Amino acid sequence: MDCFAGPAPTAPLPLDEALARVQRTYGAVTEPEEVPLRAALGRILAEPVTATVNVPPVAVSAMDGWGFRMAGNDPAGDHLRLSVVGRVPAGTVFPGTVGPGEAVRIFTGAPIPVGVDTVAMQEDCRAEDGSKGGTVLVPATLERGANIRDAGEDMTAGSVVLTPGLRLRAQEIGLAAAVGRSSLSVRKRLRVVLFSTGDELREPGTDKPDGTIYDANRYTLAAQLDALGAEVRDLGILPDKPDVTRAALADAAATADLVVTSGGASVGEEDHVKAVVGELGSVDLWKLALKPGKPLALGRIGTTPFLGLPGNPVSAMVTFMLVGRPLVLRLSGAESAPTPRCLVVAGFEFRKKPGRREFLRARLATGPDGRPVAHKFPSDSSGVLTSMVEADGLVDMPADATTIREGDMVEFLPFTGLFA
Questions:
Q1: CB atoms within 10 A of CB 296
Q2: What is the DSSP pairing of strand 393-397 with strand 409-414?
Q3: What is the pLDDT of residues 363-394, one digit of tens each?
Q4: Model confidence over 183-202: pLDDT tens digits?
Q5: Computed from CA positions of residues 278, 284, 290, 293, in that sequence, does the dihedral angle turn out positive or negative?
Q6: SS in 3 state form for the chain?
Q7: φ, ψ of residue 304 in degrees (nearest 5)
Q8: What residues form the membrane-spanning segments (predicted)?
């Protein structure tokens, strides 16, 4: 009997097609809320931010130095000798006008006085007497307008400076503050229910009878979800019992924006998750043409999105990085962004059969010519979690490729971009 609604693909799906389905099928499911700037780090911006002021509001000095009017002065060799008529610290306004042959001592961020069209860096000048009535020598070769930041040079009033879908970093928060915002409208945190399945699993810190293992997947996955800003509810370990799995999935879907499981999505007699999801909703994607991580299920429990990850620890982590991370960001309302990657030199030899895309765990070292070199972890087993600790990222080997030779240029996905 067909245990799930709708046709499921029988052949493993290429990763790029699976990611395209995620983009086509899923959108933001979280509502906006207003939070203070100090609470906005890592959140997804829900509404555009428009500058209400120019930044800077007026023309200001770009550095500490001397402000003067370039036009109308006669140079004495390489310098101009100017009379000092005042001092302009940041946050003050010079009350008068600076005329030809005059200069003011000015500091970074201070408003440019009327009459000043150029600022000379203090290290290029020589003050013969810094007080009013003294003189200063400034370079005569500066271009007019040097070292002055025009009003609105950074942002102009009325312009959109931040767009919805941005995952807010320190720089976006600082920019919002610069235009006077004390709070931002962001998407509520994605509510994710997470659990593992398997009679062989035990909770860390408890007794572990022969034939059992400690459950690492829930902890790695919860950490990955936390890094993406999700609100995680951990249901623990479920036994390999269809009725228990069915009840847990139905309950989870009623209160979650996304249900994530580890294990139970394969084809073994004790793997019930995929079948139960089909009964409660639909399995829209199953099996990727990918190593590690072939048994991956994507679908819905009722209307709640569902992600079923493999039970092997490396497979669970890698498939979450490649598919789960884009899905979580999509549901959270984040704008689409390509997976960070770079080209590095292969410091290893590797061969495989064509037809399945492989992601090889590797660490980076600096080669003799200064270029980064990827060194593959010795084991390709999806059960060797130490490989993820010792690696810096993944080498992406295309499905149709069969050989990597030492010295080849290969695409590398650093963990620093996949864990956040």
A1: 26
A2: antiparallel
A3: 999 999 999 999 999 999 999 999 999 999 99
A4: 999 999 999 999 999 889 99
A5: negative
A6: CCCCECCCCCCCECHHHHHHHHHHHCCCCCCEEEEEHHHCCCCEECCCEECCCCECCCCEECCCEEEECCCCCCCECCEEEEEEEEEECCCCCCCCECCCCEEEEECCCCECCECCCEEEEHHHCEECCCCCCCEEEEECCCCCCCCEECCCCCECCCCEEECCCCECCHHHHHHHHHCCCCEEEEECCCEEEEEEECCCEECCCCCCCCCCEECCHHHHHHHHHHHCCCEEEEEEEECCCHHHHHHHHHHHHHHCCEEEEECCCCCCCCCCHHHHHHHHEEEEEECECEECCCCCEEEEECCEEEEEECCCHHHHHHHHHHHHHHHHHHHCCCCCCCCCCEEEEECCCEECCCCCEEEEEEEEEECCCCCEEEEECCCCCCCCCHHHHHCCEEEEECCCCCEECCCCEEEEEEHHHHCC
A7: -90, 125
A8: none
Tokens representing 118? 């150029």
* Residue carrying the six token digits 């086509």: 24
